[in-house]
TrEMBL record:
Keywords: DNA-binding, Phosphoprotein, Transcription, Transcription regulation. Pfam families: GerE (PF00196), Response_reg (PF00072). This is Oxygen regulatory protein NreC. Residues 11-128 form the Response regulatory domain. It comes from Acinetobacter stercoris. GO terms for molecular function: DNA binding.
């Protein structure tokens, strides 16, 4: 059923070499309300860049399984091309270790191929509504990286200069996510709206490149 409450960013570019995934994503997008003429497919970066020369994409879905390094690079180039573009990273659980790098590079949200169509549809909705998805595994990985960075700073205090770190609220959110609480439950605990919580999560993702990959 078409959901008319959504404002659909168009056009959409899907970067993937997997035909079955392309068809699956197209079917989900059509169910949400997209039209075929607003969905473009690319199997290589050259094809993707050619599409962007002729169409100003507002939403991109990037398959990181077969295009892991190129996919990360494409995320970065898309954010340079348009900082407001929505980007959904799609991957299998086998390569989820690349997820933090995708988020730090500018991906808006993520989903896994092993999820069912309803979950992927939910991830797409979250992405184009400007929300922020996070799950316990991601929160745990961010906290581990943060602890490693803090240990490095304690050994060499000069590292703390010009470093962007996590504040008390962000750490509290990550710890609650890591314990399995939902966004709604965390928002209630902190007495903030879910929209405010989304803003905190997006800010955490923006900080990843400073305290994880520098």
């Amino acid at each position: 059923m078409v959901n008319r409450e959504l404002i659909l960013p168009i056009p959409v570019i899907i970067l993937s070499t997997a035909v079955l995934l392309q068809l699956r994503l197209k079917s989900i997008l059509l169910a949400i309300g997209y039209k075929s003429e607003n969905i473009f497919f690319a199997e290589t970066l050259i094809q993707a860049n050619t599409i962007l020369e002729h169409h100003s994409a507002s939403f991109a879905i990037i398959d990181l399984d077969l295009l892991q390094n190129d996919g990360i690079g494409f995320i970065k180039s898309l954010k340079n091309y348009d900082p407001t573009i929505f980007i959904l990273s799609v991957m299998s659980l086998q390569v989820k270790n690349s997820l933090l790098e995708a988020l730090s590079s500018g991906a808006t949200a993520y989903c896994f191929k092993e999820q069912d169509d309803m979950d992927i549809r939910s991830a797409i909705r979250t992405t184009i509504q400007g929300g922020a998805k996070i799950d316990p595994w991601v929160a745990q990985q961010i906290l581990l990286k943060f602890d490693e960075k803090q240990a490095g700073i304690s050994l060499n205090p000069a590292w703390s200069l010009n470093q962007t770190t996590l504040n008390e609220h962000e750490l509290e959110i990550l710890n609650e996510v890591a314990m399995g609480y939902s966004n709604k439950e965390i928002a209630e605990h902190l007495e903030i709206s879910v929209f405010t919580l989304d803003s905190f999560i997006k800010h955490i993702y923006q900080k990843l490149k400073y305290f994880i990959f520098q």
